[in-house]
Amino acid sequence: MKNRSRGIAKILGYIIVAGLLVCIASGIFGNTFGSVGAIKRGLDLAGGVSIAYEAKGKVTDQEMKDTVEKMRLRAESYSTEAQAYREGDKRVVVDIPDVKDADAVLKQLGEAGAIQFIPVTTETMTSSGGALVLKDTVENLAKKGLVAVDGSDIATAAAEAYNSQDKLGTQYIVNLTLNTSGTKKFADATEKYLNQQIAIVYDNEIISAPTVQAHITDGKAQISGQETMESAERLASIIRIGALPVELEEVRSNTVGAKLGDNALNTSLLAGAIGFAIVFIFMIAVYKIPGLAASLALVAYIAIELALLSMLEITLTLPGIAGIILSIGMAVDANVIIFTRIREEIGLGHSVRSAINLGFQKAFSAILDGNVTTIIAGAVLAIFGTGTIKGFAYTLVLGILISMFSAIVITRFLLKAFYDCGFDEEKFYGIKMERTPIPFVKWAPKFLIASCIVIAIGVITMGVNAGSGKGAFSYALEFQGGTSTQVHFNGKLPSNDEVREVVSTTIKDNNVDISPIISDNSVLIRTKSLNLEERTSLHDALEEKYSITDDDITNENISAAVSGEMKRAALLSVIAATICMLIYIVIRFRNIAFGTAAVTALIHDVMVVVTFYALARMTVGNTFIACILTIVGYSINATIIIFDRIRENREGMKKKDSLEEVVNKSITQTFSRSINTTITTFIMVLVLFIMGVASVREFALPIMIGLICGCYSSVCLTGPLWFYMHSIGAKSKKN
Predict the structure, then answer these.
(1) pLDDT tens digits for 564-609?
(2) Are 386 and 566 contacting, i.e. CB atoms less than 8 angstroms apart?
(3) Which domain does 230 fall in, by range?
């Protein structure tokens, strides 16, 4: 009786705490710190400001490319999801999400002027009221050879905080990196003006005057003495923007609406809630009392994640939602692993209480390895990735950390509370008896042949598409650029979906990006590059549909928002993440065959999803990157679970057991876990696909394909691949 009262008290206490978390996260107490309404959102979900700059004077194509990249770097200091792209020959457009007041952003950004580093001498400066003042214009000082370096000599600048060892507390600095020409000039200047000041001048205004403390020859310098991290970031930002090879003038600023439409986030949240409710019912139906405990724990998990997204000011975009979906799937997976273990222990004759303890104990290594592997990948992507990749990585890592806490701590707490309440019989938990092993190793050649055929079809399709001039893939605007069409309306703005339908029907293009410009009562339509005939047809269709004139429509060519540097950063970050995962797997499992098999399966899954994109001609853009990363994260986790069981069963092998039997047994034992986890994650994405707007559906469909593929490769390929690789390695050692 005492235990029952204690169990009921624990459950009621949890419900109260979880309910409070849900109220905070849902915004019942207002859209304040920690609520969904306070979460920063990207351009696709919330819109923001769009600012256009035009280069002064004559500029080269390379100078404009460099300008776009440096403007992107500065814009990312306001949001990792900010974008910068070229419009026409001399314009740069910067889009910054989740900002409504364009004037406030412009004030913070300032005008894009020129920056110089000028030695403080009696010839260059004087003192007025304790402040340094230039004696002449920057142009005249440059003509006299008194400017050490200027913006064309600077590669980049970044703020940093560190704890000083000499009891000065936290110090804020700006790390400055110069290019090849700047390195030589700066080395000469720091040698000549050692222990003297060199002023940093921006738009003829002295913003800082640090003292040269060493002869700097490697092109890397530190500007110390910043009072706060904000001031250091501001100085670094000014240096970056001032390092532009051209001078810019602001020509247009607008407030833009959500690219995916005003209802995209609301429908996604509703779809998530419905999907979660279905998963809730599924877990209870399959796992009974443990399923109820896991579902209640997931309520707190979701509330905590939403609150932390708000508190940590992580910008949420469509790829970020993918990271959340993946982390929810992994949270469910951790619980499924535990519950499967509990059933196995009951089947071996242990009491329910003992089975619960042993279930958590034996499941821990699999949960730890699977989640740590994915966290490593997420951390690498967050450090080295850019834009969308960072947003995905932040939500993924945050979600995985919370999911581990949810499964290992909250679920265990609730499960023991239910046990104390009287749910202490085997019928409430289920019993898993030993099954006859399925011969996965024997069937592996057939699986491999089928996979090779699918991938070959994809490669051939890409080759045929590329040879016919259509391109291997249907690239999104952010990858290849296109045409920007701005349409001014006299009355109420039409919905994004309505405009998208008119445009896509007219020019036969599904890759249409719509951004309402609220401040100008206009809509910005970004499409593939349009020829004269297509532009004329589009103008005619818009004029007929909305009773506007040709004067209300303007066109400009735009460049790709995802630059070559961003593509390289994306590729390198994914490669680095894969290498780090491989190293971790090899260290943990002490066998390189495990790591090689896991990476081979990852490549297989990516190639199958790429094949789907090629066959369906689905748009390849930022969401494609997020989709691939989602599949990689899901697949590696599923693979680790099977490898963990193989490792455990190998340690308990008897002399009569063959390695092939161990592999088949291990996959069979984890088979129900693989299927059930795939079902629960698939349900979440399926509801998102059914209820989401067009862009969301285009994102959800390949993820569903990837989930099925990831389950297939983990169950049917990774174990047999490890078996073959290990067997070949063993034979080589004998020989």
Answers:
(1) 656 666 677 778 877 888 888 888 888 888 888 888 888 898 899 8
(2) yes
(3) 115-243
